[in-house]
Amino acid sequence: MNGSLANGLNEGLNAPPPKIAFDRSISAYSERDVQCGFWVCRGPFWQRLASKKLYVLLFGLIGCILNSTTSYFYGTLTTVEKSIQISSRTVGIITAGSDLSFVLASLFLSYYASNRRKPLWIAMGIVSMALSCFVNALPHFLFAKGQEELEQNVGNWTKGADNLCREDRLAPDCSLDVGDIRPQLVLFFGSFLSGIGTSLYFTLGLTYLDDNVRKEKVPFLSSLAAFGRRMGPLVGFSLASLCLKYFVHVGVDPGYNQSDPRWIGAWWMGWLVLGSTLIFIAPFFASFPKVLPRTAERISLSRQASRTSGTNSTTAEEDVDGDRKVSFSDMLVTVRRLVTNKAYVFNNAASIFYFFGYMPFFLFQAKYIEIQYRLTPSQANMVTGSVSLVFSALGILIAGVVIQKLRVTSRQLAGWNVITSILSAAGICGYAWFGCSALNNADIVSNNGDNMTASFGSAVSGSCPVDCWTPFYFFLIVMCLNKFIGGTESAANFLIGLRCVEPRDKAISMGFSMAINTLFSFLPAPIVFGAIIDRTCVLWGRTCAKKGNCWLYDGEALRVSMNYTAAIFVIIGTCFDMGTWYYSKNFKIFDDAPGEEDAKGQMEKELVTLVGKEKEDPVQTTRAN
């Protein structure tokens, strides 16, 4: 090595990290684009926080809280149904508010914000989710009924010990019910707000992670963030379990415990906790810059190398929507590119049927466990939010490690999705076999027109004591295995969806995927499966204005109809997974883009290249620079 080259290398390698000159011919970013913080919260201290590790940590934490809001809603569902007198079908309509806003935000906001400061937009979505939490708690404060009125509305049929079994059951007091729809409208509005925040978090948050991380590290880091999100249901269901142990009017002793059908827990309490937490975290997330400094440095070095060598190659990492012009016509062109991408189309078609089939287990799993195995709402939420979801989170995390370690191909990932879909469908069919023979509400109550009579001689207050723990344990084992398998499939499916499109289309492709999945899965599935659940009801609560919530279900009919219907949708999705596998042969999961750990190596290569070119043609090198 000659003296001048050695001196140049030593000067470059021993110097502090270079401050990048953001020449518009080299980089698409200004100095402001890499600044961390906002308003008065700027400076060297905040700039140290602009790291991928902190982003992954906060991204996973926020995802955990966002998912906990969904699980908390469904964990308190049966209590809310009794509190404001709604059916499962009405719950499906309420959740449609979230689906509606999710579609709109996924289609338009994800495209509009794709070349802007994504973390700031995500923070606005977090604030929207926080407001949703506070709105969901409002029905208790605005329309709360007293203890006596609650018992009259939700427990008229329990006033006498044998009231359920008599044809001359006491009629409800019509003066206490006027068919109040106001609480339902409030919940619908809260659901609408949550959809906006959820859409911004997923569409922009995942693409920001992919834009600012080396591609070979994306599988593990995205799985790590997903692991945090999968812990959300654990938090949500545990919080629901805790809150439902307290009576809805905190400090009041109703004279009966939570095993009594008249018990209504403090379903509103958890919403205040979740909303306050989201409001506290949002400003920290908004502090992240448009692009992380190390990423901007890496891109600038890569573009400098390309210009010096006379090439014009652009890696996926470099194309992060620097100067993309936002317009409706450009959005249509982007959508046209997506719908003509066969791998993308088949992958989304498979997701539609897969999510449709798995929707009842996302939404009604706690309720299903309550009905099938006579667990209390608190017990069902603890089981749903702890044991089973830990296996789901482990599946995602292990899959991310294996994918990164083995550097699997796109076809291998798509093939694994086919296998896991088949196993998932088999597991769902297995659920139908694990019922409690000691519990058959259809035999207890026979419905003849408007009269309901009992098929046993006497009745006691409260639920009949049954032992359903053995079939429940078998159900729990199969469910945990299914959650683990589904977690591995989720990690693989995410990478396929991200890599089968052009880098410039990542944000809008994720938004478009979520929009069509919402329209054809998340929107109709709760209504369809809510109707299936309602059809298995054998004893409806009655109010003067309308039919109230269901008190008893035919467990066997519910077990068969819900599980086999769900399995059929998953099997159809498997057929489309095969199409995804066939067309997943022309795109890469990984690339050879250099990373931030190689910054010194990059500088050494750049200096070697420049010195070599000076020897060959000093004039040409000067013109290039």
UniProtKB/TrEMBL annotation:
<feature type="transmembrane region" description="Helical">
    <location>
        <begin position="230"/>
        <end position="248"/>
    </location>
</feature>
<keyword id="KW-1133">Transmembrane helix</keyword>
<protein>
    <recommendedName>
        <fullName>Solute carrier organic anion transporter family member</fullName>
    </recommendedName>
</protein>
<dbReference type="GO" id="GO:0016323">
    <property type="term" value="C:basolateral plasma membrane"/>
</dbReference>
<feature type="transmembrane region" description="Helical">
    <location>
        <begin position="415"/>
        <end position="434"/>
    </location>
</feature>
<keyword id="KW-1015">Disulfide bond</keyword>
<feature type="transmembrane region" description="Helical">
    <location>
        <begin position="472"/>
        <end position="496"/>
    </location>
</feature>
<dbReference type="InterPro" id="IPR004156">
    <property type="entry name" value="OATP"/>
</dbReference>
<dbReference type="InterPro" id="IPR036259">
    <property type="entry name" value="MFS_trans_sf"/>
</dbReference>
<feature type="transmembrane region" description="Helical">
    <location>
        <begin position="508"/>
        <end position="533"/>
    </location>
</feature>
<feature type="transmembrane region" description="Helical">
    <location>
        <begin position="93"/>
        <end position="113"/>
    </location>
</feature>
<feature type="transmembrane region" description="Helical">
    <location>
        <begin position="383"/>
        <end position="403"/>
    </location>
</feature>
<feature type="transmembrane region" description="Helical">
    <location>
        <begin position="564"/>
        <end position="583"/>
    </location>
</feature>
<dbReference type="Pfam" id="PF03137">
    <property type="entry name" value="OATP"/>
</dbReference>
<feature type="transmembrane region" description="Helical">
    <location>
        <begin position="120"/>
        <end position="143"/>
    </location>
</feature>
<dbReference type="InterPro" id="IPR018247">
    <property type="entry name" value="EF_Hand_1_Ca_BS"/>
</dbReference>
<dbReference type="GO" id="GO:0015347">
    <property type="term" value="F:sodium-independent organic anion transmembrane transporter activity"/>
</dbReference>
<keyword id="KW-0472">Membrane</keyword>
<feature type="transmembrane region" description="Helical">
    <location>
        <begin position="54"/>
        <end position="73"/>
    </location>
</feature>
<feature type="transmembrane region" description="Helical">
    <location>
        <begin position="344"/>
        <end position="363"/>
    </location>
</feature>
<feature type="transmembrane region" description="Helical">
    <location>
        <begin position="268"/>
        <end position="288"/>
    </location>
</feature>
<dbReference type="GO" id="GO:0043252">
    <property type="term" value="P:sodium-independent organic anion transport"/>
</dbReference>
<keyword id="KW-0812">Transmembrane</keyword>
<feature type="transmembrane region" description="Helical">
    <location>
        <begin position="185"/>
        <end position="209"/>
    </location>
</feature>
